[in-house]
Amino acid sequence: MAEFGLIGLGVMGKSLARNLGRNGFRLAVYNRHLAGVEENVARHFIQFFPELESTLPFDDLEKFVAALERPRKIFLMIKAGAATDEMINTLQALLSPDDVIIDGGNSLYKDTERRTVALAKSGIHFIGTGVSGGEEGALKGPSIMPGGDAQAYQIVQAYLEAIAAKDANGKPCCTHVGAGGAGHFVKMIHNGIEYAEMQLLAELTELLQFHNQLAPDAIADVFAEWGRGESNSYLLEITTDILRKREGDDFLVNKILDQAGNKGTGGWSTSTASELGVPATMIAAALFARYTSAHRGERLQATPMYQNGRNAQGEIIDLNELKTAYHIARVVNHHQGFQMIHEASEHWNWEIKLPEVARIWTNGCIIRSNLMENLVSILQKTNRILQDKEISKIIDNQQFILNKICQAGLKGNLALPCFQAAYQFLMAYSTARSSANIIQAQRDYFGAHTYRRIDDPEGKSHHTKWKDVSDS
Ligand code: NDP
Asked: How confident is the model at residue 364 (pLDDT cuts 50, 70, 90)?
C-alpha cells in the first residue's frame, strides 16, 4: 500500500513525485491512459529514478485509489479548469469520507471555493494549494501555499512541509494560508506580482539598451552587480543568464519574437483587483503590456503611422539611480500585491497572515528576493508596506529619482508601463486632495449619484441641480 498518491505526471508532477520519493514517502502515481498517445506513462517514468524504486505506477484510476492507505491523500498536478473538475468528479465516486484531495494546479480560487463545498457533502476534504518554483523548484523544494480546512491540512502537513523549500531559518516555505480558496488566491497574487517584476526587468533592459547603448551581455554585467546587493532576486538572476546566452554570433534574446504569452493568472489578478476595488496598477500595467505586445501585426502597421515629432533623445543613465528607481517600483508592486491579499482576507474572513505569506515566498518560488526577506518583518508592523515609517523615509528621499527615470523613458519615447504605473501610483497615493471631487461632481451632474462635502462633518449625501433646464 502507498501512503500518498499523485495524479498527473506532466512537468510539475514528475518533479514533485521525485521530491516526494527522495523524502522517503511510499508513493503511488497515476497518469491517464490515452491510447496511442499517453500509454504506461507512470510505469515508464518511475524506471529512470532510483528514488522512485518502490513507487507504485498506475494508469487505472480505480486501482490507484485502491492502493492508497486511508485516509487517502491524493495530490492533483494536472491542467486547471475543466480537466480538474472532471478528475475530482471521477475521484469523488471512488473516495470515502475523511479522504483528502489536494489540488496543486493553478486553479482559480473561486473554483476552489466551489469544489470545497461540493466535496464536503461527501465528507471529502479539499486543499487548494499554490505551488511555485517551476520544474526545478518542484524537484528541489517549491514554495507551497495550501488553503482549506485547517484540520484537513494537518493530515497532509508532514508531506507538504517535507518537500517544500526551507527559509533562512530552516523552516518550510509552506504554511496553512487560510480557509477555502485562500491558498489559490495567494498563488494568483504571487503570479500577479511576478508579472510586474518581470515587466520591470524588461523595461530596465530597454532603458539600458537605448540610453546607455549597452549590449545584452553588458546589461547582464549590470544586473549581476546589482544581484550581489539588496536588489538580488531569482528573476534578476535568471534575466542575467538570459541576457548572456548566445546563439551563433548573436545573443539569443535578439532572435526571440517580442510577443508575450500568458496563462491567465495575471488576468485573474487584475479582474479580482477590480472586483475588490484595490488599485493593483502595476499588475494591470504588466498584463496589458503583454497584451499590447501580443498584437504584433497591429504594432507593425502603427509604427510608421506615428513617428511625427518623435525626436528621441538618448542620455546616459546613472546606474545607481536606475537601481534606486527599480527598488522603489518593486516596493510599490509588493505594496499593491500584499494589499490585495489583505483586502481579500478581510472580505472572505480567511485570516491570512501577511508576514507568513512573505516568509514562504523567501525561497523556492519565482518571486523570492532580498526585498521579500525584508518584507517579512515589515509586514509584522503594518499591512500597508508604503505606510511603514522606514520605507516611507527612504522612498520620500529618493522618489525624485523614479521621476528622473520616467522622464528618461519619455525622452527616449520608450514604453515603460510599469515604471510609470509605480510613479503614478506613488503620486496619487501621497496626494491628500485628489482630483476626484471633479469626478463626483460629474457623476452627480449626469446621474444624480450625489456627493459628500468637506464642509459637512456628518458626511451626508448632497445633490445639486447643476444647470436649469431653461439655461440650455
Ligand atoms: P503539463 O502540461 O506538463 O502537465 C499536465 C498534466 O495534466 C499531465 O499529466 C496531463 O496528462 C494532465 N492532464 C491534462 N488534461 C487532463 C485530463 N483531462 N485528465 C487527466 N489528466 C489530464 O503541465 P504542468 O505540469 O506544467 O502543470 C500542471 C499544473 O500545475 C497546471 O495546473 C499548472 O498551471 C500548474 N503549475 C505549473 C507550473 C509550471 O511552472 N509549469 C508552476 C505551478 C503550477 P497527459 O500527460 O496525459 O496529457
From this structure: very high
